[in-house]
Design goal:
There is one protein chain. Helix content is 16%, strand content 15%. With 67 residues, the chain is of the alpha+beta class.
């Protein structure tokens, strides 16, 4: 049991997530869209849809099939 493997120490700094100031660029099928958060709004018209659209575009889910 003297040959124990010890997991290396990870990142020591803990960084808190904070609000993003200014617009966030999101790549969609129609091009780049800039999304801004309204901290005063109870709901937003698009919600998380721009980020899901970016996921679909970046992942190539709807790319034409190449046979």
């Amino acid at each position: 049991m003297s040959n124990q493997t010890v997991h290396p120490v990870g990142e020591s700094e803990s960084r808190e997530l904070g609000p993003v100031l200014g617009p966030v660029a999101v790549d969609t099928f129609a091009g780049r869209v800039h999304v801004e958060w309204d901290a005063q709004a109870a709901v937003t018209p698009l919600g998380q849809l721009p980020f899901f659209t970016e996921f679909l575009q970046v992942s190539g889910r709807f790319d034409p099939c190449k046979r």
